[in-house]
Amino acid sequence: MKSQYFQIAADGVDPKKVPQRTLFTGAKIPGVGLGTFGSDHYDARDIANAVKDAISVGYRHIDCASVYGNEHLIGESLHEAMRCGIKREELFITSKLWNNMHGNGDVLLSCAKTLKDLKLEYLDLYLVHWPFPNYHAAGVGVDSRDPNAVAYIHDNYMKTWRQMERLVDAGLVRHIGTSNMTIAKLELVLRDVRIHPAANEMELHPHFQQDALFRYCLDNNIVPIGYCPVGSPKRPARDRTQNDTVDTEDPVIVSIADRLGVHPAIVCIKWAVQRGQIPIPFSTNKNHILSNLLCSTIDPLTHEEMKAIEGIDRNCRLIKGQVFLWEGAKDWTDLWDINGVIEEN
Ligand SMILES: NC(=O)c1ccc[n+]([C@@H]2O[C@H](COP(=O)([O-])OP(=O)(O)OC[C@H]3O[C@@H](n4cnc5c(N)ncnc54)[C@H](OP(=O)(O)O)[C@@H]3O)[C@@H](O)[C@H]2O)c1
Question: First CA to last CA across the chain, in angstroms?
Fold first, then answer.
C-alpha cells in the first residue's frame, strides 16, 4: 500500500550515485548519512520526519543513538518507508550503546530496546558511543559531573566489547564499532578484539581534521565516520566555548561556496566525502537534507580547493566532553589522550 506520507521524491538523488565505502567485511556503507541528534532543542517528531524526508530523497544511511531519545519515532519512519517499498537491505542503520549500559548484561538489553524502538530485526552498525561508562542526564550544563565517573579502563571496555561481539554472533548486529576514541585506546582495542571494529565515529570538520587518527583508521581498515561535519552550528550550550571557531565562516570555505553558488555547509560536506570520511550531517530542513546528499554526486572540489581546506585546520574540537570528566581530572583534554598516553584515574 502506498502511503500519502512517504513517497520517493521526484527531485531526489539516485542512491546508487552516492559514493559508497567498503567495510572490512566487504559490506558497503553509503558515503553520506543523516545525523539524528537534535542538540536538546529540536523536536523529536521533526527529526523522525527528517528521516522520512531523507529516505525519500535518496539517503540510505541513518545515524541513530538511544541517548538521542527519538529512536521510537524514527522507527515509525523506517517502518513506513519499508511498508512503501524500501527494502531493509537497502538501508544502513547505525545505533549506539549509551554510557550507562556498559555493564554485564546491559549491552544485549540496550540493543534489544533499540531494535524494538527502531522496529528492526538487526542493525548494520552498533557503536560504543563513548569509551567511558560515565553518565550525564539529558540537557545538563557544562559543569555537571557524574560522581561515579572514571577514566578509561581497558579491561572494562573489553568486557563491554565482548558483549558487543556476542550481538554479532547472535545476528542482531552486522558490524560493531567505536566512537570518540583515540589512537592510544584503539591500539589496545585492536590488540584484544575477536571482532574487528568496522568503523570509528569521530568529530571531523575542516577546523578539526584529526589527521593522525583519521589516517590510523584508514590504515587499520576502520571506516571513519565524521560527526559535526558542518561544525554543528546549533550544538548545545554545554558544547560551546569562547575560543570555538566557525567552519562555515572561514574565508577559504566561503570563497569556494561563492564559486559553486552553494551554502558553506555544502563545501564542508564535499570536502569530507572527497577526503574519504563519511559525513553524517543533521538537518530537519528538507532543502538542506537534499542538498547535503546531492552535493556528494556533483561538482567535486578541485585538487587546489582540497589542498586549501587541508590548510585551514584549527585543531578546534567542538564536542569536548567535559560532562564525562572524573574527579581529579585536569580538564577536558584528559578525555582525549593528547600526549598519546591514556589518562588514568
Ligand atoms: N558519536 C558521537 O558522539 C556524536 C557526537 C555528535 C554528533 N553525532 C552525530 O553526528 C550528527 C551531526 O552532528 P551535529 O548535528 O552536531 O552537527 P552538524 O551536522 O555539523 O550540524 C547540524 C546543523 O547544521 C545545519 N545545516 C545542515 N545542513 C545545512 C545546510 N545545507 N545549510 C545550512 N545549514 C545546514 C542544521 O540546521 P538546519 O536543521 O536548519 O538545516 C543543523 O543545525 C548528529 O546529528 C549525530 O547523529 C555523533
Answer: 57
DSSP string, 64-90: --GGGS-HHHHHHHHHHHHHTT--GGG
Task: Say how many Å lie between the CA of residue 46 and the centre of ligand 1.
Answer: 14
Q: Among this protein's residues, is 68 annotated catalytic?
A: yes
CA 102/CA 179 separation, integer angstroms: 14
Catalytic residue among 59, 68, 216, 227: 68
The finding on whether 230 has its CB within 6 A of some atom of ligand 1 is yes
Q: Is the pTM of this model over 0.90?
A: yes
- The residue count of the chain comes to 345
Output the CA–CA distances (angstroms, integers) from residue 314 to 119, 205, 233, 293, 325, in the order listed: 41, 10, 16, 26, 24
Give Cα 343 distance to the centre of its chain.
Answer: 24
The count of C-alpha atoms lying within 13 angstroms of the C-alpha of 252, restricted to the half-sphere facing its C-beta, is 19
Cβ(292) to ligand 1 under 6 A? yes
Work out whether the CA dihedral 229, 233, 236, 240 comes out positive or negative: positive
User: Ligand 1 within 6 A of 201 CB?
Assistant: yes
Is 221 buried (19+), middle (13-18) or exposed (0-12) by CB count in 10 A? middle
Using the mean position of ligand 1's atoms as its centre, give its distance from the Cα of residue 158 in Å: 30
Residue with the three cell numbers 589516517: 215
Ligand 1 midpoint to CA 240 (Å): 15
Interval 156-194: pLDDT, tens: 999 999 999 999 999 999 999 999 999 999 999 999 999
pLDDT of res. 224:
99
Chain-centroid distance of CA 63 in Å reads: 6
- The segments of the chain whose pLDDT lies below 50 read 1-2
Closest CA to 167 of 105, 90, 74: 105
For residue range 74-84, what is the model confidence (pLDDT) as tens digits?
A: 999 999 999 99
Please work out whether the CB of residue 233 comes within 6 Å of at least one atom of ligand 1. yes
CA 75 / ligand 1 centre spacing (Å): 20
316 grid coordinates: 578546534
Find out whether the beta carbon of 285 lies less than 6 Å from any atom of ligand 1. Answer: yes
